[in-house]
Amino acid sequence: MQSAIYILKNLSEQSPSETLRMLHASKLSLSYHKNLIFVKTAIKFLQDIPKYSLNDEDCALATKLILNLLANADIDVRCTTYVECYTLIKSILGIEYNKLSWENLIFLLEPNVLTEIISHGASSEDSKVMKNFLSGKFVRISIIANYYM
User: Fold this and answer.
1) Nearest 10 degrees: Cα torsion 110, 114, 65, 76
2) For the whole model, what pTM was predicted?
3) Average pLDDT over all residues of the chain
4) Are 81 and 70 within 8 A, CB to CB?
5) Can you say whether the dihedral through the CA atoms of 56, 102, 139, 148 is positive or negative?
6) Which of these, 32, 6, 116, 24, lies nearest to 65 by C-alpha position?
7) I need a labelling partner for 20 at 20 to 30 A (CA). Which of 45, 58, 70, 120 fits?
8) Count of CA atoms in the C-beta half-sphere (13 A) of 27
C-alpha cells in the first residue's frame, strides 16, 4: 500500500528502474484501494519504456506488470487496463496526428502479452473488454509485431 501511495505522489522523483519496481510492488494492493489512476500511471510509464535504458531484468519485470494488469482478478482493474491500452493504440495507429510512435507500443508486443490479449481478451466476460477486442484494435498489434520482429 505504501508503494502505491508513493507512486501516485512522487513518480517523477525516481529513476525508471526504481519506478518500475515500485509499480510492480504496488500492484499487490490495487484490489484493496481500487485507485484506477494507478493503472493509467502504469500504462503511461510502460509506453515510455523505449526512452529508458532498462536492463533485461527490468524489461522482464515490465512484462510481468502488464501481464498482471491484463489478467487481474478484479474486473475493474482488468477493464481499465484494456481501455487504457486501447486508447494508446488508437492514438498511435489512428488517423489523427500524434507525437508518439509505434515504439510506444513495444511493451504490448511481447509474445506473452500478445498471447494474453488475444487468448483472454477474446474470452472476457466483460462487455467493454470484448467490444475493444472485437473492434480489431488489439488484433492489429499482432500484425505490427510480425512486421517489425
Assistant:
1) 160
2) 0.78
3) 78
4) yes
5) negative
6) 24
7) 120
8) 26
DSSP 78-116: HHHHHHHHHHHHHHHHSSS--S--GGGGGGG-SHHHHHH
Q: What are the pLDDT digits (tens) for 91-130?
A: 887 777 677 888 899 999 899 998 888 777 666 666 555 5
Q: 9: which 3 cell numbers?
A: 505522489
The answer to whether residues 49 and 103 touch, using CB atoms and an 8 Å cutoff, is: no
What pLDDT shows up at residue 1? 47
The alpha carbon of residue 142 and the mean position of all alpha carbons in its chain are separated, in whole angstroms, by 15
Segment 33-55 mean pLDDT: 90
